[in-house]
Each structure stands twice: as C-alpha cells, then as structure tokens.
Amino acid sequence: MKAVKTSPDVASTYADQVDGLYYYLIGVSVFFTIAICALIIYFSVRYRRQSDADRPAPTKDGKLLEILGSVIPFILVMIMFFWGAKLYFDARMPPKDAIEILVTGKQWMWKLQHPNGKREINDLHVPVGVPIKLTMTSEDVIHSFYLPDFRKKMDVVPGKYTQMWFKPEEEGAYNLFCAEYCGTEHSLMVGKLYVVGQEEYEKWLNTRWVDGAPMANVDTNDPVAAGEEIWDTNCAAACHTGKAGAIAPNIVDKFGTMRDLEGGEQILMDENYVRNSMQNPNEHIAKGYPAAMVSFKGTLNTTQMNQVIAYLKSRSTADSE
Amino acid sequence: MNDSAEQPTYNYLTAGDTVKSWLLTVDHKRIGVLYLIAMTCFFLVGGTAAGLFRLELATHNPDVLSNDTYNKLFTMHGIIMVFFFLIPAVPGVLGNFLVPLMIGAKDVAFPRLNLASWYIYMLGGSFTLLAVLLGGIDTGWTFYTPYSSVYADSNVILAGTGVFITGFSSILTGLNFIVTIHKMRAPGMTWMRLPLFIWAQYATSIINILGTPVIAITLLLVVFERAFGFGIFDPARGGDPVLYQHLFWFYSHPAVYIMILPGFGVVSEVLACCSRKRIYGYEFVAFSSLAIAAIGFFVWGHHMFTSSQSEYAALIFSVLTYLVGIPTAIKIFNWTATLYKGSIELSAPMIYTLGFIGLFLVGGLTGLFLATMAVNVHLHDTYFVVAHFHYVMVGGMMMAWLAGLHFWWPKMFGKMYNEFWARIGAVVIFFGFNFTFFPQFIAGYMGMPRRYHVYAPEYQPFQMLSTTGAFFMGIGLLICMVTLISSLFKKGYCGRNPFKATGLEWNQAASPPNTHNFTAPVVVDVEAYDYTDERIYQDA
C-alpha cells in the first residue's frame, strides 16, 4: 500500500517560509487545544457531582485571570499578524527579472501565453530558477489561479488584470487548480505546471510540438509585433505624438511611469490603466490634453488589448516596478 | 407541585388544538414551536443534500452524480443550512420561547409582528424550495458575481428572492427582542442580572438589524442585474464583480456571529446549571458578546485576501480579525474556569456543551490560520476553510443548539427524554463530527480546492474518512431525533425544574408554561446563576 501523503510538496523557498509560519500556528493551536481539553476532562472527573472534592463557597472572579486571558493571546496573535503580513507583502512584489506569462481564465480552461507568443492550454512550462510573473485576466467569471506546492493563489477577475509571481526551484510537475468556483466543470479546470531545466525550456519555447514530436519553425505569433500593428493601424501612432499642439500625449515609451492627470492627480500607467483607457478613455484625462480619444470598447478584443499592452511594455524606458 | 405532581392540564400546548389555533397564534411559545417544526424540516432537506454529495466524494472519480447535480447539491446544502437553519435556529426557537420567560414578561413586545416573522420565514423558505424543485441553483451559497448575475443557468432569481425575503424575518425578530429586553423586564431584573442567554440574544439582534438590510440590498442588485441587465457587478457592463464580495461579506461575516452568539448564550446557561456555579466572569462574558458584535462588522475583507482588493486594506482586515479573536478567547477561558470546583453532572445537554467548547476552540484557532495573510493565500478556498467553518457552525452552533434543545425540552413539552439514549446520541455526534471534518483540514493544507466534484487521487483517503464520519454523524442525529420525539409519547411528568436550574423560566413558570407564562407577579431579588439559593432545590 502506498503511504498516504499528508503535506504538499515544497517547491520554493517561499513555500518553506509559509510552512514555518504554519508550524508556529499549529504549535499555538495544539497547545491551547490540549490545555483546554485536558482541563475540561480533569474538572469533569475531579468535580463530578458524586465526588467528595473540596468545593468552597464561591469566590469573587479574579480580574488577573481575565487580563492574562486577553494579554497572552494578544501577544501570540500579533506575532502571527506581523509574520503573515511580511510574507504576504514579500509575495506581492515580483522581481524585475521575472519572465512574464499572460494567463487568461475561461470556463473551464487556462489559456497561457509565453513572452514570445507561444501558447499553451492548462499546461504551463517554465524554467527552473527564474522568477515567473503571471499577469492574469478572465474572459467570463472569476477564477483563481492556485499552485498549492508554491502556497500561492490569486483570483483571476474579468475586467481587470491581477498579478502573482513565484520562483520554481525544483524541476518537476506540480498541480495547477482553479480555486474559485466557476460553474459546471469547475473541478475540471485543472492543469499541470512543468518546471524544466533552462535549456529544455528554451528548446521547448522555440519548438512547435505536434503529437509529442518536435517540428521546426515555431509560429510564434509575437504579441509585440501584433500590438505594434494595432497601434499603427488604429491611429494611436498618429495621435499620441506629444508634439506641440498634438491632441494626445506621447505615451509609447512611458509604460510603468506615473502620469499627470487633469485635476492634479497622478496615476501609474500599468496594465489596468492602459486597458481602461482603451475602453473608457474619458475616465482619466491626461493633463493639458482634451478629452478627445474614442473608445475601443467592442473594437479591440481581450487578446488585441493584451497585444497593445505587450507592445507598450516592450517600448518602455521606465525602470519596471 | 413537585416531581410526582401531575402535569398542569392547562398550558400553552393544550390551550387550543385546532390547526387555526396554531397558525394564528400570537403566543411566543407556540411561535417557537412553529419555528422548531419548520426548521427541523429545512435541516433534514439540507442534511440529505450533504449526505448525497458526501457519498459522491468518497472516491475521486465521478460515481453517482453529474457535475451540475453535485454543484446544485452543495449550493442547496449551503443556502438552506445557513439561511434557514443556522441563522434562525436558536433565536427562532429558543429565543422566542425563552426571552419573555427569562426576563419575566408575558410575551414579546410585538406578538403579532412575531407571528408575521414566522410567515415571512416560511414565504422565503417556499421560494427557495421552489427554486430547488424547479431545477435547483448552482452558484454556491455565496452567489458570487458575475457567475450568479450573468453566467449561471439556474434559478438564481427565485433563490435570491427567497433569501431576500427571509432576511426580513431576522430583522423583525431582532427588533422585537431588542424592544422586549429593553422595556419588558420584570421589576428587579436589572441588566446585570440578565441571564447570559439574553445578553447573547441582544447582541445578535443588533447585528441582525444592522447587517441584514445589506445582504437584502445586495441580493436584490444581483436579481436586478440578472433580470434587467443592470451593470452593477458585471464588468462587461461597467460593473465591478469584487464590489459584490465586499457587500456580501459585509453582512455574511457578521452573520457568522448571528449564528454563533446565540449558541454562546445557550452554553453559558447549561454550563452554569450543570456545574452548579455562577459563570466565571459574568460581566466579561456578557460584554464580550457586544464586543464581538461590534468588531465583527469590520473584518469582512479577510474573506478577500486573494480577491484583488488593496493589500493595505487586507492588512487592516487581518489585524482586526485577530482582535475579534480576543473576546472569543475570553469566553472560552471563562467557561473552562466555571467548571473549576463546580459540581458537574454530565447530563446530555452538558455533554453537548463540553463538546461545543472543544470543537468551537478548534474552529476558533483554525480561524487564526485564515486571518494570517500569507497562510490564508494558500488555504483560501480549500477544504481547510470548509473544515474551519464546519467546526464553528456545526461543532459550535449545532452542538449548542442541541444542548439548548435538550436542556429546555422538558420546559417546552413537559416530558423528559430517555437520558441514556440522549447521551449516546451526543457522544456519537461528537465523534462522527470529528471523523467527518478533521481530515478536511489536512486535505485543505495539501491544497484540495473546495467545491470540487472530481479531484486528484492523493486527496481520496481524507475524503473517504470524511464520508465514513458523516455516516456516523447521521446515525447520531437519528438517535437524537428519535429520543426526543419518542419522549413526547411517554407518560410521566418531568416536574417544573428537572435540572434544578436558576432562572425565572424554571422557578416561576410551570412545565410547560401556561399561556400567560406566570401565574403570579414576578419580582427578581437574586443575581443570575445564584446556585446557593435554596429555593431552586425545592419543588414548591
């Protein structure tokens, strides 16, 4: 009989750190559970009605016990809070050198796209030892991208981009689940994360596989090139010149920077901002320019908007993050 | 009268035996019994749904149910158990029966409104059952958008309307209790002499009044978006799906306290009686209920750490969640301390109560795991969460409910059940429960997502244990039901105060109480839980 596994794999240093905190929580919980249960059982036996235990007249309630009963738990939980918050914030900031993979959730599959445009469904290949940043959105309902062996999860929400990142440190195949209930085949919206060696990843990335056999000349459908074409053919290149008297600011190399808005506010030009500007251009008006942009809602689909974003990212001169 | 005395022939049960006399009654005790019957039916429907999908989950492959049927069953289980059992059980049955009796009042402040609450509850329940009969609903009890408002192909509008309507029953009952507790206490029944059950009902009623309107509006918006295409939550129409989660949890987190606080009240009563002592730190226990009710309104975002809400908001929600844990810890310490140098009798209600403390403790401590942000990211939406809230809801609330039902059963019906079988039922439920839900903590930490019909084979051992445990839990519940119901056909009379408890309901009212509760004017001259008072040991 195979031994029953009772804990998930540890696929990254971060997973190990989360486990450390988890064991602290288990320690505190087991201590209090055993202490309280032991007291209850002991009292129930010692002071059962038939026993002749000493039962003095009722004494006044001790304030000391109440204070200790609040202060000790308070200290223990504040340790949990700071420890948990620190790890959480660490886990939110992707490193600059991360490989960015585009994730699209759709009832009931995961669509994944590598930087060179190569696509996969439900399976995701990544190189070992390199941080991977996922930029995620959904085409329909809310999904949630969950890698239990990395202790990471993030909801994938329609109408906006969310991000998560992880750094695989062991080669292998890991579970990928949808964790947010999304309808009939929710439990079939699962896949595998394949962590492979650096060279193998390069080879995989630049090869087209047909029925398990490699074929030459991968058709990459490069998102940057596609995005550039959309940019050029939809007048953006003509409008967003930023020259004197131009109708719109030059933003082609500004991705990742703070932009000035009418009214004095600033906003970060990120995926959500660019997407929103294409759909609702008059929500945020660039400082010094008229509200003249037309909406591309209904004209550009999610894939095309992603391509525009990829193009702007490729041109960016900003220090990312 | 004493133990051997005859049961009083005129009481609230014998006051009229026509169907009309029950369906048009404004007697709070009869309304309590109406709730008891209705709620038991809902509980059985919700439990049957759970039994079916538990059977399915015994193996990792699909066996007996289709995807859609599975999804509809867990949704039905959730909606019925949360909105039609957990929330109304203790207030609807025990609260209605006991609040006036415990404070020395003739009835609640608004008896007709009280009856209206029951009808509203039944109307809401009918809508929900109709949704089930017409093909079911598959959104999960959480109704997350845009799945519920746009994509789901099931009876969301009917079920949503059902829950919307039922909410008004909670609001009106809450209103009724608050006014009753403020205005109708007997002379001498000061706030600090109130039984802790009353404090708990009071805190619960406040949450009901403040929180329930929010869920009502939220579900109405879902219904409107679905029926008329409003763009509130659907991003394709300019809405925000995460806004729904904020609105939903703004009610549904406090709702956890709506479910559990009345249980705290029951536990305090039983514990004091069965250890013959005043509850240790009465004031702390009373005010911790109010503290929980207040802080509980500001922690909803801990359900949303992975939802894309702001990280800084998450930080605040996390720290407030720990703070709500402190008054809960105080309660557990005080209940345990109450046992010290008590005179403990392990009667059936006491076994349920001690079981409650142990299980609720595990439920509360595992709540700390989920309040811890980095750990939450891993555990969110896994079986760990399922196990955690079942420890709180079933291990906590249901155990407390059964404790209360066994404790006040003789007062409600004038009959004592078979104590031996009642204890067996309690013990079987306790062990069956742990067998069912403890393995789910491990499955959850291993990463098994909840609401999975088909799952990876490595989780199967835990799911099999769960299904086995659920079978024993079902047996325990069956023993419990048969024991209680068969007692109604017994001869013999339980006496006015079979547990020798303090409290007006035991010492100044008959079992079952007559229509007007008390035959003589009630004046209170003792503190709550004064087990040195000789009068409770006499059957005068």
At a glance:
The complex is a heterodimer of chains A (321) and B (540). Chain A is of the alpha+beta class.
What Rg of chain A is obtained from the alpha carbons, in whole angstroms? 27 Å
Mean pLDDT of chain B: 93
CATH class group of the largest domain in chain A? Mainly Beta
Largest sheet of chain B: none
Secondary-structure element pattern of chain A, one letter each:
HHEEEEEEEEEEHEEHHEEHH
Tally of structural domains of chain A: 3
The greatest interface between two protein chains, and residues involved on each side, is:
A-B, 82 and 88 residues
Secondary-structure arrangement, i.e. CATH architecture of the largest domain in chain A: Sandwich
Distance between the termini of chain B: 6 Å
Q: Tell me the number of helical segments of chain B per DSSP (H or I, 4 or more residues long).
A: 17
Radius of gyration of chain B: 23 Å
What would the average pLDDT of chain A be, to the nearest integer? Answer: 86
SSE order of chain B, one letter for each helix or strand: HHHHHHHHHHHHHHHHH
CATH class of chain B: Mainly Alpha
What do you see in this structure?
- The complex is a heterodimer of chains A (321) and B (540).
- Chain A has 321 residues and is an alpha+beta fold.
- Chain A folds into 3 domains: 9-37 and 73-93; 99-215, Immunoglobulin-like, CATH 2.60.40.420; 223-315, Cytochrome c-like domain (Cytochrome Bc1 Complex, Chain D, domain 2, Orthogonal Bundle), CATH 1.10.760.10.
- Chain A has helices spanning 13-46, 63-90, 198-205, 223-233, 236-239, 271-279, 302-315; strands spanning 99-106, 109-113, 119-121, 123-127, 132-138, 143-147, 152-156, 162-166, 172-178, 191-196, 208-210, 213-215, 258-260, 266-268.
- A 5-stranded mixed sheet of chain A has the order 3-2-1-5-8, with no helix packed on it. A 5-stranded mixed sheet of chain A has the order 4-10-9-6-7, covered by helices on one side.
- In chain A, β6 and β7 form a beta hairpin.
- In chain A, α1 (13-46) runs antiparallel to α2 (63-90).
- The longest helix of chain A is centred in the N-terminal third of the chain and has 34 residues, at 13-46.
- The two termini of chain A are 50 Å apart.
- In chain A, 31% of the residues are buried.
- The mean pLDDT of chain A is 86.
- Chain B is mainly alpha-helical and 540 residues long.
- Chain B has one domain (30-535): Cytochrome C Oxidase, Chain A.
- Chain B has 17 helices and no strands.
- The radius of gyration of chain B is 23 Å and the shape is globular.
- Classes of the chains: A alpha+beta (321), B mainly alpha (540).
- Chains A and B meet through α1, α2, β7 and β9 of A and α3, α6, α9, α11 and α12 of B.
